[in-house]
């Protein structure tokens, strides 16, 4: 038993010291780089010499990221709810990698609102979250798989661990559970091609990531559009 424990400690020590070498020419594509985790990761990888392609939802986000990064960092606008926008981003990545393939894909985008009791919601409320946080990420992953297979690269899906607890209705938890299942399946299938698939389950790094004002605004919006019958069944005290 002691020998096994010692072997595991040695293995973990060696594994955790491993670093990717020869970063020149290794392209990493990151979604959700306007702010927070995706933004910080893009800057961090850029400083270490990776060829970063950062997808931003807004032109302002792209400009601000470029202002504090090296000239090798490239940005592209991306709306994960729009298939044509995804196609343009994939074409841009293909052009930038210039036949080398894609070393890494980091999926980070989130759609979180609206959330609320399930029977306060309509199907479009689920679409507004799932189209970005689940279906959009799946679509762009599928379209980038040929580049990832060419470089024997890796997929890293950043999933907020809060979404794995189904404590509120809406598409948020559904999208997180869906990305877990998609990642686990993809990991098994891509092993044959030398492509690694990882999940990073993170928490809330900063308090401002949870904007209570936005959540409250959506709750009142949902409440105000309910039929009198549903509203009466809950009552003002519930709200």
From TrEMBL:
InterPro entries: NAD(P)-bd_dom_sf (IPR036291), SDR_fam (IPR002347). Coiled coil: none annotated. One of its GO terms (biological process) is steroid metabolic process. GO terms for molecular function: oxidoreductase activity. Transmembrane segments: none annotated. Pfam families: adh_short (PF00106). It comes from the Eukaryota. Belongs to the short-chain dehydrogenases/reductases (SDR) family. This is RDH7 dehydrogenase. It comes from Setophaga kirtlandii.
